[in-house]
């Protein structure tokens, strides 16, 4: 079970080589195949996630959540997706057409590109990049541009406000996010995600870096634009923020991308702080799925409990609390490493 | 020096958190509100004019529709105004029942306040819990009057029907559970640091300004003015009850929130006392079927509604219909301080301020 | 400590998250309605004394009715009663005003209709629409639903009566015919004539069922003619 997927990949490669394909071509085809499978799985997973989120909000609010279509309402999201696909695609006449149209596409492309480096099990990453973490963070900050495009292109005051908020927020929270991960990198001595997982053989980094995890978790919530930091959307204030003018499938793409980002960020948290695929009895790819889902449940739980924070408090929280804390964490980690190295560990 | 420009943003009339058809034209400088202009009248139904073409008794259901979140309170104000006009004396038991249902209405209205504040600030779950608890009050109204929201339970000279037997255990268990409910709101909503940050020092209304603008009700008390019509200009049988009038100090959104929470507790106390002292007997005074008050009589009667001082000004011309009815709607007058308390705040504070002023647009626009 | 309130909030939502839902799954699970619940306004014609208190009490002109005078009495009888539910506020004022419990609220609250005119309820007391309705069926039938039924019923009834009349006449039927002629002798003459002549018998039966005035004239004409032929026969 543990090597189920890696074995399949090996069999496929050797089969293609036996057909007379040069090994480099076989690798390339396999790469594209893996990539496609991941994109498909991730998008289909969103259907489950939307259902899960609605169910959880239902349970928290003493309701049942969707329960009409299929067992426990499981097909509700599919019906919703159908509806969104068949809806009229409205582009406001005053909108900047090209920017308006490309923003959601770019957003989803960036969101799925994050999965290239995530180890979804032992030896199960599409690209074993030696600067994987760096790649992840830099790509993640690109999505700011998409939201700005959406807000600007819509030519709507609410959208623009939402977009400006998201830019300010995401740029401010990039910094504590990166700093909090730095502690982990210092401990593991590598930016390669699979090497970081291997480094957690003895202890999960949550035990060594609890502060870093907390900073990462808060900053990631802000990066994801999820409650209580859902400034760009802010339904009660900005109607729907940057997404106000979007309809049908274009809006659904934003939705899809947000959930895709949620999975990516949770999977990264599982990889960096909870030992990735490590765990007893079960195969590594199952472990990472379980851990990712558990982290996502916490994200959802938080969203349905907390009110939205105010914009200026959000900014001052980032600059006055999170960044100093994460910097201090780096310092203490560095000192600790030096200390234990001096002790001869 | 960079030149900046202000821009207008229209909050409403179709907006998720304007509590109905309210339109606030906010003049913004970035995220900061330079000025706000309140436009009301989207829910205007000319209730005062309707009253002139209805008999005194027929207007009761319309009065219910003024403040539909606490429908017993405007009807109480109206029927007491007519009783003053025509000199009708209401039986004891009816008075007690009126107090019980109006205080329940006040609790229901404040529960909606807490819930809508929660959802306006983004905490959806808080809203659901408040509405879940309010549902028990609605059930009690269904027991007593037959209608849940717009009960039209009051009648000239009494009430439409005596309380059913099932009402007493329901109201007692509700009053006993009320502290638990409030503790839960404190845990989920007011105990939350994010909410505290968003309410404290937001939309400060000084006592002078509040009095100058004619603000009444919990909004006035939050500014530190100790003024409650139930105690200071008592009507009905309110002097018989013992209760505290909660006040705030700063007049910010947080105080407006906490004052209402405490008012719920005090209403619970009043209901407890009323249940204890309630006599048996008649519930309806003898009122002529066609009520024709003396010509030229004029009354102004005010009650402490959940939103503030709710006044009815009636003029009689000797016929069976009032010559003129004017409603002093607290929501309307309270809303007028919105520009004052929004100036200099953030866009998100406008939402907080609308929520904590707690306007009901049905009453404000009449 | 900052964060304590946040954790407490999370605890509360977790506690309720594992509790049983408090909602009612509406179309399958029916809500419990209190006894006084005011759903749909209904009208029972049997108690109505046509006093008009309800229309006077109604603030919104929901109720209206038509009356017709009862012959030989100062009272009026109800021709139709209309509840235009789209204007109803369910305020209970008409029900309280009604002295005979003719108006009442029922617990049916699902009042939506596909067309606007369907929400207007018209009650026509069956005494008006069904002549000799055999004890009066106590069911309320809205006007448009009633109209075609009444015609069919009347037609069926007429055929039944006609058949009965024909058989009666073929067997004699002096007593029936006595109403249409002056003397019993004449009736006997007519009975004999109709027993013999099937054509005339059918005509007579139809006339008796449909138009009693004409039947009388025709019957007398028949008798006169028969007398004449009888007299002529005797003369010959």
Can you tell me about this structure?
- With 345 residues, chain A is an all-alpha fold.
- Helices cover 70% and strands 0% of the residues of chain A.
- Chain A has one domain (90-342).
- Chain A has 13 helices and no strands.
- Chain B is 48% helix and 13% strand.
- Chain B has helices spanning 47-52, 60-64, 72-86, 92-120, 124-144, 167-190, 193-199, 207-213, 218-222, 229-232, 253-277, 330-335, 338-342, 347-357, 361-365, and strands at residues 7-11, 23-29, 32-39, 154-155, 158-159, 298-304, 309-316, 322-328.
- In chain B, a hairpin with a 5-residue loop joins β7 (309-316) and β8 (322-328).
- In chain B, α4 (92-120) runs antiparallel to α11 and α6 (167-190) runs antiparallel to α11.
- With 236 residues, chain C is α+β, with helices and mostly antiparallel strands.
- Chain C has helices at residues 4-17, 53-57, 93-97, 126-129, 143-170, 174-177, 184-196, 198-210, 212-235; strands spanning 40-43, 63-69, 76-84, 103-106, 120-123.
- In chain C, the strands form 2 sheets. In chain C, strands 2-3-5 form a 3-stranded antiparallel β-sheet, with no helix packed on it.
- Residues 128-146 of chain C have low confidence and may be disordered.
- Chains in contact: A-B, A-C, B-C.
Summarize the structure.
The complex is a heterotrimer of chains A (345), B (366) and C (236). Chain A is mainly α and 345 residues long.
Give the arrangement of secondary structure elements.
The complex is a heterotrimer of chains A (345), B (366) and C (236).
Chain A: H1 4-18, H2 23-60, H3 76-86, H4 97-113, H5 132-154, H6 157-188, H7 193-199, H8 205-208, H9 210-223, H10 235-238, H11 248-273, H12 284-303, H13 311-342
Chain B: E1 7-11, E2 23-29, E3 32-39, H1 47-52, H2 60-64, H3 72-86, H4 92-120, H5 124-144, E4 154-155, E5 158-159, H6 167-190, H7 193-199, H8 207-213, H9 218-222, H10 229-232, H11 253-277, E6 298-304, E7 309-316, E8 322-328, H12 330-335, H13 338-342, H14 347-357, H15 361-365
Antiparallel strand pairs in B: 1-2, 2-3, 4-5, 6-7, 7-8
Helix pairs in contact in B: 4-5, 4-11, 4-14, 5-6, 6-11, 11-14
Chain C: H1 4-17, E1 40-43, H2 53-57, E2 63-69, E3 76-84, H3 93-97, E4 103-106, E5 120-123, H4 126-129, H5 143-170, H6 174-177, H7 184-196, H8 198-210, H9 212-235
Antiparallel strand pairs in C: 1-4, 2-3, 3-5
